[in-house]
Amino acid sequence: MTKQEMLKDVEPRPRSTIVWATAVALILLPFVVSTPLATEILIWSIFALGFNLLLGYTGVLSFGHAAYFGLGAYTAGLTLRYWHVGLWTSLAMGTAASMLLACFIGLVAIRRRGVYFAMISLAFGQMLYFLALSPLKDITRGEDGLTHIPSVNLFFISLEEPRNLYYFILAITVLMLYMTWRILQSPFGRLLQAFRENEERAKACGYNTTLVKFFSLVLSACYGGLAGSLNTLYLGYVPLTTLFWLTSGTIVMMTVLGGKGTFLGPLVGVAVFLFLQNTISLFTPRWELFVGAIFVMIILLFPGGIMGTIQEKYLNRKMIRLQKKAATG
Amino acid sequence: MILRTERISKHFETLRAVDQVDFTLEQGQLKSIIGPNGAGKTTLFNLIAGIYRATGGKVFYKDRDITRAPLYATSRLGITKTYQITHIFPSLTVFENVRISAQRRRTSFNFWRTAHSLSAVNERVLDILEQVELIEKRNWLASTLSHGERRYLEIGVALATEPQVLLLDEPTAGMSCAETNLCAELIQKLNKSLNLSIVLVEHDMTVVMAISDEILVLNEGKTLAQGTPREVSDNEEVQRVYLGEGNVCLA
User: Fold this and answer.
1) What residues of A are in the B interface, CB distance below 8 Å?
2) What pLDDT, on the 0 to 100 scale, is given for residue B245?
3) Handedness of CA B75, B81, B83, B89 (dihedral sign)
4) Is residue A56 one of the residues assigned to a domain?
5) Tens digit of pLDDT for each residue in A94-108?
6) How far does A181 lie from chain B, in Å, by closest CA?
7) Residue B27 belongs to a domain
């Protein structure tokens, strides 16, 4: 075997069947479930993709990601309402605000790891929640949420029409999926995983691992801010709960349910979670109880989450094949 | 002289783990550090590599003071260590383990270029895998390798940082006698053919005596003796404190 041939078989390549199946599923989604539910799935998927970069690939648990989602939502809402900016500007400002916040939180908390980092991020998230609730009430409208947000157009297409909005957000989702794939295949993406696997070794390889964690956090906040901004477009207002810690908890649950550290896990987790929530809440107002029970069951039976379990099975089979090949020469 | 410590010390409260040790390493030299358990061998490594902050004394690398340089900085300068307990990236492939280490000097925070397109890096990874005899297992997950293979992988990961000084902390720990002898050959090969300066902490006296240019004997954090294998093994105090109890593989 030549070097070139060897180098070809060391790279993971996306399966074209999986790519096409995902594409078809996403295009047909608003015809399978209601358009609002489909739109919510996309928005939370973007949020979860970013969260997964941090939790699944870098191995850092943030328990305050509502801060990025909520800040993005409020920034987009406020700029639309008070400054009457356009679609792209509001999205860009929502995203940028969250990234700036991540830079700040990163500077303060990035040296902590594990439960300390999770707690500090939770504290920051709650701080933002209470800021929006009361001291900044005049701007944010406090508990009522930010209303009277003007609707926006994409060129001449109205995004008030649910299907239009869905396909607009789908285009952005596809873009974010592609970006995530590129990041994971890049030297930086591999470095994230190295950090997760063994921080000490990554340091011994010459990497400043504090910076790795910092960039991962900011990158993750970028997704959160974008998702939050899109959520504002979708709802037409900003509920205060976007900043509440339950939002942080939900994104953790979705990501873990789908399979942290797997590429499509966030999408699957979000879809399953929101679908269950929507279906069960038709029958009972205590839907959390059932979603919670299902979550516990899945995690007990399949600790890797849905996609994590599938990926593990696949990898195991591949390893057995490789071992057999090595044994027979 | 590529590496030198000057009265380097590390005290943990009242415990003097390393106490005023003068250590030197010449370019291309293979030097072993021996001593009973708790003599301060690993602590000395950690002081040189920047994992511990010294409580006294200095470390010089090519006449540059690196006493306060953190681990990643010493690695960039060219000092790389392997660990007594294997430190690899278990759920990544063997190839990826070495590549992450190898890409550092080319690009690290580039998040748009694919790792696949770094062909110079990737080819070097294959060369290293060839050296540590893991090329056939390049697609295996590191966690599925045998103990001995993981030790080799760790040496491969260390080599990929393009070191000038390699600190090997008990590379043969847990290996069978056959594996130990192969590993000793590999270390000697790296030392001679790549002209790598190597510091070796090792319990196996046959290996140490066979491949070292010089030996430093530590006891309770202090230098007990220093010299060629012959001088050290003839030293009566060394014999009393240490020699004769090490586990031995017959070469």
Assistant:
1) 3, 6-7, 9-11, 182-183, 185-191, 193-194, 197-198, 200-209, 211, 215, 219, 315, 319, 322-323, 326
2) 54
3) positive
4) yes
5) 999 999 999 999 998
6) 10
7) yes
Contact B115 A187 (CB under 8 A): yes
Are residues B155 and B168 both part of a single domain? no
Which residues in chain A are closer than 8 Å to B99, comparing Cβ atoms? 190
Buried b / exposed e over A52-65, threshold 16 CB at 10 Å, is: bbbbbbbbbbbbbb
On whether both B74 and B167 belong to a single domain, the answer is yes
Among B132, B162, B192, residue at a domain's last position: B162
pLDDT digits (tens, 9 = 90+) for B89-117: 999 999 999 999 999 888 767 787 888 77
Task: Assess whether B70 and B191 both reside in one domain.
Answer: yes
On whether residue B132 sits in a domain, the answer given is yes
The number of beta carbons lying within 10 Å of the beta carbon of residue A223 is 30
Chain A: closest CA distance from residue B110 (Å): 6
Model's pTM, two decimal places? 0.90
Distance from CA of A109 to the nearest CA of B (A): 20
Comparing CB atoms, the residue among B91, B111, B136 nearest residue A197 is B91
The CA-atom distances, in angstroms, between A284 and each of A117, A212, A254, A290, B83 are 36, 45, 21, 9, 56
> How many domains is chain B partitioned into structurally?
2
The verdict on residue A150 lying in a domain is yes
Range of the domain at B41: 1-78+163-251
B2 with B56, same domain: the answer is: yes
Tokens found for residue A10: 């060391």
Considering only alpha carbons, which residue of chain B is nearest residue A4?
B123
